[in-house]
Design brief:
Order of helices and strands: EEEHEHEEEHEH
Structural class: alpha/beta
Number of strands: 8
Shape: globular
CATH architecture: 2-Layer Sandwich
Strand order of the largest sheet: 1-2-4-3
Strand content: 25-35%
Length: about 180
């Protein structure tokens, strides 16, 4: 289990992640964010616990992404499958998430919600993963964003699956800070 605590003048976030059964306990005060974090847990197979308070919705959503991404980075197995690609249909929405959990942060979207597009970018940066989201179609923003979180969760489930080799021609990368 990894626990990340992030405190600023604007927010106080505590995020825990363990590889598990997709169980979530989320309380941020933003009902849609709670719903998306619960969805991410269920579809990824990660147990996610988040408690968060903050001044503005934007600050809260961004800092939850930062803390959750940092916690995810700490539980990525060295010998993970690394890649995941899933497409999810939700009513009229069709969204694809393609990820690489190889240690290079990058995000390409966009989602039709500035707040949740920013969540994805902050999450990718702090998890140190690459996320490409492609909205193939959709009219309802709620359905598009939710389909994106479901697709991301399923892609994470695939990418984090542990194997017996490191999927990189570089082998295991080690970085030491002194």
């Amino acid at each position: 289990m990894t626990t990340v605590e992030r405190k600023t003048r604007e927010t106080s976030i505590r995020a825990q992640i363990t590889v598990g059964a997709g169980i979530a306990a989320v309380s941020t005060g933003v009902r849609f964010l709670d719903h998306m974090m619960t969805t991410l847990a269920r579809y990824s197979g990660l147990n996610i616990t988040i408690s968060a308070t903050g001044d503005l919705r934007h600050h809260l959503i961004e800092d939850v992404a930062i803390a959750t991404g940092s916690a995810l980075n700490a539980v990525i197995p060295v010998t993970c499958a690394r890649y995941g690609d899933r497409t999810v249909a939700m009513d009229e929405a069709l969204v694809q998430a393609v990820i690489d959990a190889g240690g290079r942060p990058y995000y390409e979207g966009p989602l039709p919600s500035n707040l949740y597009d920013h969540w994805m970018r902050s999450f990718a940066d702090n998890a140190k993963i690459t996320i490409h989201l492609r909205v193939h179609r959709g009219k309802d923003r709620h359905h598009i964003v939710e389909a994106a979180f479901k697709a991301l969760g399923l892609a994470l489930r695939d990418a984090l699956r542990e194997g017996d080799i490191v999927f990189s021609t570089k082998g295991q990368v080690s970085v030491e800070t002194k």
